């Protein structure tokens, strides 16, 4: 049977881009269940134009880049999705993502797979070669996570000891002041981290596709998962460790390291580059189901639509 797919979308700007994404998903997947967390504090949005199959988390959570609030927003939207619907699979997207494969192709792949999640992961401390030997092939577009610098950074973010000090941060050209902190990373492991030999730390790309079983694990955290949450609450980029660490340590859960996402990192940086018309051949030649990131109303989106809906 063809699996039902639901969508979780995280967004914080560009309401028109979000609406276009939703309408395209509806056209491809036949009005699937969609749960959206849109950060109303960063960008107010009128939800009236959105189709009835879209549910918004209310009230929204004030999110910030690389902060635990991003994980909270995802979990709130995932709970909303499975409260109002019970899809076989869910896909986590940002508002800057876009589908690049027809729905029948995605459904056929998910129906044929024996895994519980398509999720990029590697254990902290692994080299690229050791992760390949232990866990199998990965998404070839995510070389960013295989670099020596990224591996050192992830150890520092998730396992290393930290000292931090309160400070004031100035935003909007100095017009807005907010409390912040300065973090000093220490060259040894934190004695308070929740990780151990039988509960190691994993990390990888944020964007995942997973089945109902994985969703339930994320929505019903164990005491060990709650301790992990408390640890990551004040750590940088927790959204690139929490899902991986929970799912990789769960007995019986099977995972595919290729998360079927296309992105161009160009060897480094905190964000993938924006995709455009010049990237279209590589985008469509990939085995990915979705691509990111796109600028609002970039002409490449019209070209992708023409390919996806050719003959409709």
Automatic annotation (TrEMBL):
Signal peptide: none annotated. It is found in: Endoplasmic reticulum membrane; Golgi apparatus membrane. It is a single-pass type II membrane protein. It comes from the Bacteria. InterPro entries: Glyco_trans_14 (IPR003406), XYLT (IPR043538). Its main location: endoplasmic reticulum. The keyword Glycosyltransferase applies. Keywords: Disulfide bond, Endoplasmic reticulum, Glycoprotein, Glycosyltransferase, Golgi apparatus, Membrane, Metal-binding, Signal-anchor, Transferase, Transmembrane, Transmembrane helix. The keyword Signal does not apply. This is Peptide O-xylosyltransferase. It comes from Sphingomonas citri.
